Sequence to fold (347 residues):
Amino acid sequence: MNCAWTSDLLHLAPEGLYCPAGDFYVDPWQPVARAVITHAHTDHLCWGCRSYLVAEESEPLARLRLSRDSTAGIVQSIPYGKPITIGDVRVSLHPAGHILGSAQVRIEHHGRSWVVSGDYKTEPDPTCAPFELVRCEVFITESTFGLPIFVWPSQAQVFAEINAWWQENAAQGRASVLFGYALGKAQRLLAGLDATIGPIFVHGAVESVNQAYRTLRALPPARYVGEIGDAREFRSALILAPPSANGTGWMRRFGEFSSAFASGWMQIRGARRRRAVDRGFVISDHADWPALVHVVRETGAERVWVTHGYNGAFARWLNEQGIAAWPIETRFQGERDDLAVEELNEG
Fold:
């Protein structure tokens, strides 16, 4: 089914979601002249654009991500909720609750309003501004975890489990290596750890992001792993690292350790085994099924475009509920765990 009309404020172009009335793209996947960016994850922040508009709190992270791109243009930022005029439209950015500086993009033109959600979560998180519900006529929503099986346990419960696992390992004199994405997830995990259990160390990829976060958010102390020369210092410690470090020679420095992975994909049976870790903790920076349904309904949108993840399944369900919805395909599909998806598809 075709979800585009000639009067649409946005449509899919080869470079991504394009707004003709403003002559800009939202989260383009190819370099463009003018980009409005929802957040600093690499599947949303494309290198090589001539100008970027981001939320004020996202600016340090955007500059960090673009620092290795000699072709990147200027980065402009605006506070949440402050509208600006671009071309013939009014644009404002509103908290998405996904990571620090993440934003929903509201576009208004001749009384019509569209919102592009980017990635979002509704559960409060001390490392970023809380999600803001923005009413609109057309809502473009993510659906990374857009199936009814994805229902998150409470954040307090998960952190209690993580800290108990760490404490048990510390009592046995072994390190605890906790894997989580370096931008956003690692900082959220750090903020929820009980620092009285033992020392906390971080991988270099996490440390660089921590430095940007600390300009705007308080985080518990954590030392860079590369500064430690004595492996005995890692006994009883917790080490935060990106998933890419798992199974590499970098891990040998910790001696005896237990490993765990923190992700919404841990909800799926077999995901921990496939990730080759000892424990899995279900915590995600994306909305779960109940939150996706709630947000879509509360926006009051007459039409919904669904992108990322299980967009086809979620769009079909919305249509069954009487909400006009269409899946749209983008070049990037957000936070994916192919091993977990394969397990899910196997039943």
